[in-house]
Amino acid sequence: MSKTAIISANDVDVFYGEKQALNKINLDIPENKVTSLIGPSGCGKSTFLRSINRMNDLVDICRVEGSITIKGQDIYAPEVDVVALRAKVGMVFQKPNPFPKSIYENVAYGPKIHGLAKSKTDMDEIVEWSLIKAGLWKEVKDRLDQPGTGLSGGQQQRLCIARTIAVKPQVVLMDEPCSALDPIATAIIEELIDELRSNFTIVIVTHSMQQAARVSQRTAFFHLGELVESGPTKSIFTSPEDERTQNYIMGRIG
Ligand SMILES: Nc1ncnc2c1ncn2[C@@H]1O[C@H](COP(=O)(O)OP(=O)(O)OP(=O)(O)O)[C@@H](O)[C@H]1O
């Protein structure tokens, strides 16, 4: 594991039943940077992302082998509390999915179940901090009691980001967080991702190479369940070492 890596995947294999979706993945993910996972459809990007917070545990037929460590701790060790792990490694999904509750309650939910606020004042502060960090505070501060589902798609996605960061995770996983958004909402989220990396380590799956180039410092290219290469985003896009990466970047595959 390199010195600056917060997440380290070592020989990770993932199977769905008999079918192997990931083959011997070795990847170090550095702290306080944005790492994007790119590659053609079905190459295993989401599977890898979901193995970082054990979301794959929810799929009965899914089996993970090898090891993934976060700050040196094996997240698949038997003593790991998966609920606590998912607070430490939060996730933002493709489609904004706020709870059918108020804006305030959407953000307060995580801190409440993890006992992070001792008083209403504490909770108010956490909610405000999270909404500010998610770039949503100004737009919603006068209507915190209104339903989160009443916001626009882009605002809902920022609400989901606020909800994720409210429990102060170390890592935020994002699975195509802009794919349901228009270009303006996408640009706002991309700017936000750049700001968030000072507090969090971000791993993002994206189909858009332009997005990977805009938001990430590191890029990992997956193909048919293999990690073909990874490195600084600029090098991956301007001088990839492997022909498969080159072909993907030139639009010849995927
Ligand atoms: N729940 C599941 N059950 C069975 N097979 C699955 C499941 N989820 C994914 N797979 C298979 O694992 C492989 C990798 O899928 P995955 O969704 O990780 O790829 P991806 O690169 O994220 O694709 P996309 O870009 O289309 O989202 C595919 O062959 C897919 O069919």
UniProtKB/TrEMBL annotation:
Lineage: Bacteria, Pseudomonadati, Pseudomonadota, Alphaproteobacteria, Rhodobacterales
Name of the protein in its database record: Phosphate import ATP-binding protein PstB
Gene symbol of the encoding locus: pstB
InterPro entries, sorted: AAA+_ATPase, ABC_transporter-like_ATP-bd, ABC_transporter-like_CS, P-loop_NTPase, PstB-like
GO cellular component: membrane
Keyword Transferase among record annotations: no
Gene Ontology terms describing biological process: phosphate ion transmembrane transport
Domain ABC transporter: residue ranges: 7-249
Stored PROSITE patterns: ABC_TRANSPORTER_1, ABC_TRANSPORTER_2
Organism expressing this protein natively: Neptunicoccus cionae
Keywords, comma-separated and alphabetical: ATP-binding, Nucleotide-binding, Phosphate transport, Transport
PANTHER family, per the entry: ABC TRANSPORTER I FAMILY MEMBER 17
Keyword set includes Protease: no
GO MF annotation: an example: ATP binding
